[in-house]
Amino acid sequence: MDRKKREKEMACVLVCSLGFPAKDVRNAFSMLIESADDTALDNPVVVEDLAMFLARVVVDEVLAPRDLEELGSTMGGKVIRTAKTLLEARLSGERILRCWGGGGIESKSPGCTVSEVKEKIQVLLEEYASGGDLKEACRCVKDLGMPFFHHEDVKKSVVRIIEEKEKKERVWKLLKVCV
Predict the structure, then answer these.
(1) Which domain holds residue 59?
(2) What's the pLDDT at 88?
(3) Considering only CA atoms, which of 110, 100, 113 is closest in space to residue 55?
(4) What per-residue confidence (pLDDT) applies to 170?
């Protein structure tokens, strides 16, 4: 629950892919809801996260909407109410599928594709090189949530340094601080 959006998306895709019986998924959520009060001490948004996970497994058809009723009758009223509210909203299915940046199990890609990440890095470097803020650029690199992809940051930065010699000091500074 205390992970980033990308990891939450991958967890949802994993739950959908493994094909657990609905009864087991329902029991797992019951245990999570029971421990929500304790978890809230470390993660204050646990109710919202659990509700979003519940809504997501309903949209992904791992659980049926009636399974929420069974969970709601036992415990975790606030989590269940929040999940139902999310599911009842207009165009909720599409919104819930993309809640953490992915497109669900059908997209075969939790989060961004490699080409999308490369494009985001390119845009980030262009904005920074043209006078952007160093802290903002570092935050954007972190927000990508892909530390295993920093080689692409370095590669694109070196290319930019070679192509635009007048901006090389700014780009070097970005590499020193962020990557």
Answers:
(1) 5-107
(2) 84
(3) 100
(4) 86
Q: Kindly state whether residues 18 and 101 are assigned to the same domain.
A: yes
Q: What is the pLDDT of residue 105?
A: 46
Among 85, 107, 129, residue at a domain's last position: 107
Cβ(96)–Cβ(83) below 8 Å: no
Q: What's the longest Cα–Cα distance across the chain? A: 66
Residue 58, both tokens: 């309903």
Helix (H) or strand (E) holding 176: helix 168-178
- Structure pTM? 0.56
Does 18 share its domain with 80?
A: yes
Q: How confident is the model at residue 108 (pLDDT cuts 50, 70, 90)?
A: very low
How many domains does one find in the chain? 2
As given in the structure block, the two tokens for residue 36 are 């929500």
* Mean local confidence (pLDDT), 110-137: 82
d(CA 150, CA 179): 7
31 and 94 part of one domain: yes
Say if residue 85 is in the same domain as residue 23: yes
